[in-house]
Specification:
eight-stranded antiparallel beta barrel, about 270 residues, Porin, about 45% strand, alpha+beta
């Protein structure tokens, strides 16, 4: 790494350190005063169109391809053109806390513990399949804009977090990795406190420490629901005059800051393809 790049990363890290220290000084109060949303998301990930419908009949797959084509999307273009197969089923718990809420837009903090089941091949042309699993925690932000009298939201989600993978294609070392995701989607209010959402996106996993570290990329399609709770989960008890504990800030800072720093490294060095 040359000196100029080291300086860029150093000052970027200092800036992020300052930014998140100031941000989490306010998040502690939000934990006590905000009514969170909790929910569950199921998702599917793969490297090309056929990976999402490999268990469907040819007729069903052609029907879906025809529908997608009518929407102006060429199914043949849904392909990362990589020489491996890594197909995932995602089972993700969601916990949202509002950071900023304006009349038509807002920002939420998303915490997402998850267990994912994978099937992979070391090379796309291989016939031997392997089974694997992942578990980990992603954290990040949801940026949303409301439409149609707050019945629909369009949103962008950025998350990152540490995971453990039991096995992966040989281009990537198994064990500890970082999972980084970006999603765009729609959320529909089906009840004043219940929301359904669907979100396509992109996911990258790799680590910054061990080799091999070629990285694994996936298209992801997820859908799920969330429920707005009727009171803060960490509400202050009346009459007890409980003050927010400072260690909440420190814990959140120590958890989230490394994830965003890892994102900064990814933007500097690319996705390892």
């Amino acid at each position: 790494m040359n000196n100029s790049l080291r300086h860029v990363l150093f000052y970027k890290t200092l800036f992020l350190q300052f930014l998140f220290t100031e941000t989490f000084a306010q998040i502690n109060e939000i934990f006590h005063d905000s009514t969170p949303k909790v929910g569950f998301v199921f998702g599917y990930g793969g490297q090309e169109f056929d990976h999402f419908f490999r268990n469907d009949s040819t007729k069903r797959k052609n029907q879906i391809a025809s529908t997608i084509t009518q929407l102006g999307i060429n199914p043949d273009k849904i392909d990362l053109h990589v020489d491996y197969v890594y197909i995932n089923k995602f089972y993700q718990f969601q916990y949202y806390i509002t950071l900023v809420e304006k009349e038509s837009w807002g920002i939420e903090l998303l915490t997402q513990p998850q267990l994912n089941i994978a099937e992979f091949k070391d090379f796309a042309h291989s016939t031997k399949k392997h089974k694997s699993f992942e578990f980990g925690l992603n954290m990040g932000n949801k940026f949303y804009y409301t439409l149609l009298d707050e019945t629909i939201q369009v949103f962008l989600i950025l998350t990152s977090g540490p995971h453990y993978v039991s096995d992966v294609p040989q281009r990537q070392k198994r064990g500890f990795i970082f999972s980084n995701s970006i999603f765009i989607g729609l959320s529909f209010s089906i009840d004043p406190n219940i929301f359904f959402e669907i979100r396509p996106g992109f996911r990258h996993i790799s680590n910054v420490f061990w080799q091999p570290n070629g990285g694994l990329n996936s298209y992801v399609v997820s859908a799920g629901f969330s429920v707005q709770l009727d009171r803060p989960l960490f509400a202050k008890k009346k009459g007890l005059n409980i003050k927010p504990e400072v260690h909440h800030i420190a814990v959140l800072h120590d958890i989230v800051f490394p994830f965003h720093a890892h994102f900064a490294c990814l933007f500097d060095f690319g996705f390892g393809l």
